[in-house]
Amino acid sequence: MPSHYCRKDSTKLYLEQFFQTKQELYREYKNYCDENGFSNLILSNPVFDQTFSELNLALYQPKKDRCDICCGFETKNISEIEYQKHLEKKERARQEKDKDKELAQQEKVYTFCMDLQAVKICPVVNASKIYYKTKLAVHNFTIYDMNTHVCRNYWFNETEADLSAPTFTNFILDFIKDKCTKNIPIILYSDGCCYQNRNCILSNALLNYSIKKKVLIEQKYLEKGHTQMECDAVHSLIERKLKNRNIELPSDYVKLTKEARTKPFPLEVVDVNHDFFLDYADQKNWIYNSIRPGRKVNDPTVTDLRHLKYNFETKLIEYKIDFNEEFQPLPVRSLKYPEIEYNVLHQRRLKIKEIKWKHLQEIKCVLSKDCHSFYDNLLH
Ligand SMILES: [Zn+2]
Q: Which residue windows are coiled coil (predicted)?
């Protein structure tokens, strides 16, 4: 499985979580060689290890990495000054979030946070013959209201949507449209992942919504490495519910998520279809062609953005690269205000690779009969 976090080494591929240790993997590899008549070709443990890392593989992806800067300071690769700056920024972002949570409790603003859960696969059954098969990727994007504790989970598999900016833009806009019935500012918290939360597609959609509804929207990004939010606790609840459960269909994730929380009330779940999505990437509906705060080489870039404001009165996007600074308008924009009309994003379900389709057909034999038709109908 590919990495789904914004990380430097995101070219790494990860195994599914069948194996907890390299030793377990090595044992399975040896068994496989023995059973298939390659006993005389078995690599030694160190050579196997080396080959594994040369192939840029890793066992599985930990939930969240420890912060690079904090780790770097411990191992003396980060200077005291840089580390102190990092701690200040982390603390400042936390204060900002606490303040907005309080405002939300006073019903002066809406404050939401959001994140993508670690990738899931389908099917999950306890049968060793499916170790070697590739499976469907299934994702959950969660949005949490920090005042009401309403929490909606958008579950989708890779045949209904991909992990690109328009997908997440649709979830965020859908949630806002449903939940923001009062005209008070909307504040969105997330990590700084570009394809999910910090990109031109989402920004244009939020600006258009702000202008149309005459409502102020702000986006604030937590400090990298310290992005713990209320939705993480929800993901832990869901993970607990999924433990030792068989998954035969993507909709099993939907069912289990509905049962994962009882207090103060159950989680909301949307089983997302490809026809749910609007094409927010269509540039004819854009006011801004870029959300880059600078134009010259050493100017700040998109990843420096900390805070964005969608101002319906001025029809401008304003930004801060530090919570303590004043807002400045983003420089690149056109003067046109388009007649907004969004088309449908996906005309049909998305195709999977032929090899994956083949593998899934082979896996069917260990699944209940009534879910076979789901796998029969996948496009490749
Ligand atoms: Zn840190």
A: 76-107
